[in-house]
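Duplicate of earlier report; Peptidylprolyl isomerase input re-posted below.
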Amino acid sequence: MKKVISSAILVLVAYFSSAPVFGQAKGVSLNKIIAKVDNYYVLRSDLEEAYQSYVGQNQTPPQKCQLLESLVINKMMLAKAEIDSVVVEEKLVDSELDSRMQYMVQQFGSEKNIVEAYGKSLEMLKSELRQQVKDQKIVQKMQQKITTDVKVTPREVRKFFDAIPKDSLPYMPAEVEVGQIVRFAKPTKEQKEALRQRLVDIKKRVEAGEDFGKLAKEVSEDVGSAQNGGDLGFAKRGSMVSPFEGAALKLKPNEMSDIVETEYGLHLIQLLETRGAEYHARHILLRPDYNRLDLTEPTRYLDSLRNLIAIDSLKFEKAAHDFSEDKNSADAGGLLRDAQSGGSRLAMDGTMEYAMFQMLDTMKVGSISAPLPYRSEDGKSAVRLLYFKSKVPPHTADYRVDFEKLQNIVLTNKKNQAIDQWFRKSVADVYITVDPEFQGCRIFGTTQGSAASLSGGGGN
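Output:
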């Protein structure tokens, strides 16, 4: 079963990673070109990073020939996307890039630590990562285009399950369904006023002749845009949070706003230009020190909600939908989803958030925790209630109990088959070569011993 699962998700996972990888192994020429698809290259470092992504997650890596084929397919999708004029909005790329950079700041503790760790400026790292993000978005869009009509029936799921030898059925870990209601800590009036005064002073400095972009690089806490002088690029109307957009659209080109408060912090906005239904702005963002925020109010708020749920005058799902400030889970009644499968059951093992694992281990099914301190993915201080909705104990894989998981595996298999068929049909539209070093690999279903050596042999 494990072999089936790993092969099913290989194409989808090999190229994509939520965390950027910039490092290189010492003593190895990682920039050697090992495959070429039109004007797109697969480097040895790409193959090594794909391999290490499995190792880093304590998973058994596939054979490197399989990984290479996946990487070649991804490059072919990029080449075909260019031929078919498949593009992604720059705003989506910028948004994902901002998330990646914020994640890195969280992991490393500060921007300074990132620079020291990689020996590169943030601007250079961001430039390298941006192309990765853009390529990933394009490949995802191509995959969606290719697999949009792929569906799975219960009969196909049953056939897949029945084909697994009974003595090979895997032992599944305990799985749980968990809901949450989150309330964020709010800065005090004094904290907001201190941030507001800093921005007022910055605005005066710009009005006195200092460069807005330079100041944004120095002080803005929007990591993604700060390195570009606060530049947010062109945005379509309706794409930004309403207080920000409302203030920006009232401005004339090169005019600055008053201080604007949004859920992200306090902004000083400068409109650069408008173009039809789009506008181009830059900003300087200041945010409160989340480590110093008072959790008293959100704790009291959630304690009151918990009491209402306990006396059955309010259902947890409705409370989460109406009052939770975590937008990702609120619409689902607070129910958390597995990031990989999208299913509602979470494995209660080492992959689970440790604080959640500890709490659930002390709770009974159907119970709701007391308000708990919580740190969101973007670093905000918050408090949350956890609802232990259900638990499936450890068990041998079962068709009825694990139908959703099995269905996802079969669906992924069918999508990969559709991608494989597309690949074989489209392979004649692009020029592909693979380095003789990998002549034993069966890329595209044929051994690559006859492939021409790549010109340049591997770069410097």
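The two ends are 42 Å apart (CA to CA).

Merging into the original ticket.
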